[in-house]
Amino acid sequence: MVHPLVDQLRFARSELVRSLAGVGDEDARHRFGPMNSIGWIVGHLADQEQRYWLQRSGRPPVAPGLNALVGSGRPASTPPLAEMWTAWHAITAATDPHLDALSVADLEASPKAGGPPPGDSVGTMLLRVIGHYWFHIGEAQAIRQLLGHTDLPEFVGAIGKQAPYRPEPR
Questions:
Q1: Which residues contact 101 (CB under 8 A, 6 or more apart)?
Q2: What is the pLDDT of residue 118?
Q3: DSSP designation for 64
Q4: DSSP secondary-structure letter at 168?
Q5: Domain-wise residue ranges, the chain
Q6: Are 147 and 6 in contact (CB under 8 A)?
Q7: Is there a contact between 20 and 42 (Cβ–Cβ < 8 Å)?
Q8: What CATH number should be reported for the domain whose range is 4-158?
Q9: Residue 167 to residues 3, 7, 39, 44, 86, Cα–Cα distance (Å)
Q10: Is the pLDDT of residue 114 over 70?
Q11: Are 3 and 168 within 8 A, CB to CB?
Q12: Exposure of 122 by Cβ count < 10 A (0-12 exposed, 13-18 middle, 19+ buried)?
């Protein structure tokens, strides 16, 4: 059975998709001051998943060069939205088998190769990715409001159907 935290990550992913429905490339490339662009946000989240779930487990990147374009600490960029969605879909599809196989013991362990702050477990990394999604979903909604978009999603979607609470597997 897939761990409940993996369900939460998948739910956060689905909320990113829902929150950006209907955004076109021109709007996705727009930047307001120091804020990121929506295209950058999509690519940036994909990059984190690629680093955490593929590269840190010794697998090659699905989207080489993505980190140079949208990685943390890199210069601001406004990449094409379609390219970032393509990378995001490819990376999330490639990471799903790894995530599906995570056990409680795996989540309690340190990552095998490299990782965030020393001592962080794979489970803490998973929590960080989930939080990262929600942070950037909020930023994307603010950008959309500044762009004048209306009828935006107002609250967390169907969590009760997609990722309801359930006990951790034993």
A1: none
A2: 60
A3: T
A4: P
A5: 4-158
A6: no
A7: yes
A8: 1.20.120.450
A9: 9, 12, 36, 31, 34
A10: no
A11: yes
A12: buried
pLDDT at 63: 97
Q: Give the tokens for residue 161.
A: 């159907």
Q: Which segment of 36-45, 81-90, 94-103, 104-113 scores lowest on mean pLDDT?
A: 104-113
Tell me the pTM.
0.92
Nearest C-alpha neighbor of 93 from the set 62, 135, 129: 62
Cα→Cα distances 80→9, 18, 30, 107, 159, Å: 24, 19, 11, 34, 30
C-alpha angle 122/128/130, rounded to 5°? 105
Two tokens, residue 40? 């950058």
In whole angstroms, what is the distance from residue 170 CA to residue 167 CA? 9
Average pLDDT over every residue of 63-89? 96
Cα of first residue to Cα of last residue in the chain, in angstroms, is 10
